[in-house]
Amino acid sequence: MKLISNLIVGIIAISAAGLSLLSWALPNDKDKPINIKAKSADIDDKSGVYIYTGNVIITQGTIQIRGDKVTLYSDSNGINKIVAVGRPAHYREKPAENKELIKAYGRTIKYYATNEKVEVITNAKLFQEGNTFTGSQIDYFAKTQKVNAKGGKTNESRVEMVLQPRSKKKQ
């Protein structure tokens, strides 16, 4: 019962503070409520650390983060960092109405609110508008839709990409 009470307190604390998971997806995503599902929750409101474990699903509008363990870090300005760990951890968001969902998978996914950056670490995969990126680490910058991909330390561990041809503009 205490676990459920802590989970409810954490959700209320996040919602009451007006915290937005990700401020850069669809414009109205940040105005949607944050929904969190997990098997357990460890809420430390004083330090601003919220740890959720057990098939964690965090959703806000079109944004979804999934992992075996997800930790949210917040301060007086709201959530500033999210770390999801899983086998794999999942991330998705719809950047605009006319854009496809961006999906990412990896052992660890880190989201940084201040620079709107998503890091996908270990067995990283990112799918964007039909393009695919795989590597040891992929950094996605949502505001600019820029992707940086890195291979591993060995020569065999390389970045792989499949890039779709751009459609010709109608004249």
Automatic annotation (TrEMBL):
<protein>
    <recommendedName>
        <fullName>Lipopolysaccharide export system protein LptA</fullName>
    </recommendedName>
</protein>
<dbReference type="InterPro" id="IPR014340">
    <property type="entry name" value="LptA"/>
</dbReference>
<dbReference type="GO" id="GO:0043165">
    <property type="term" value="P:Gram-negative-bacterium-type cell outer membrane assembly"/>
</dbReference>
<keyword id="KW-0574">Periplasm</keyword>
<keyword id="KW-0813">Transport</keyword>
<comment type="subunit">
    <text>Component of the lipopolysaccharide transport and assembly complex.</text>
</comment>
<dbReference type="Pfam" id="PF03968">
    <property type="entry name" value="LptD_N"/>
</dbReference>
<dbReference type="GO" id="GO:0015920">
    <property type="term" value="P:lipopolysaccharide transport"/>
</dbReference>
<comment type="similarity">
    <text>Belongs to the LptA family.</text>
</comment>
<dbReference type="GO" id="GO:0009279">
    <property type="term" value="C:cell outer membrane"/>
</dbReference>
<dbReference type="GO" id="GO:0030288">
    <property type="term" value="C:outer membrane-bounded periplasmic space"/>
</dbReference>
<dbReference type="GO" id="GO:0017089">
    <property type="term" value="F:glycolipid transfer activity"/>
</dbReference>
<comment type="function">
    <text>Involved in the assembly of lipopolysaccharide (LPS). Required for the translocation of LPS from the inner membrane to the outer membrane. May form a bridge between the inner membrane and the outer membrane, via interactions with LptC and LptD, thereby facilitating LPS transfer across the periplasm.</text>
</comment>
<dbReference type="InterPro" id="IPR005653">
    <property type="entry name" value="OstA-like_N"/>
</dbReference>
<dbReference type="GO" id="GO:0001530">
    <property type="term" value="F:lipopolysaccharide binding"/>
</dbReference>
<feature type="domain" description="Organic solvent tolerance-like N-terminal">
    <location>
        <begin position="35"/>
        <end position="146"/>
    </location>
</feature>
<keyword id="KW-0732">Signal</keyword>
<dbReference type="InterPro" id="IPR052037">
    <property type="entry name" value="LPS_export_LptA"/>
</dbReference>
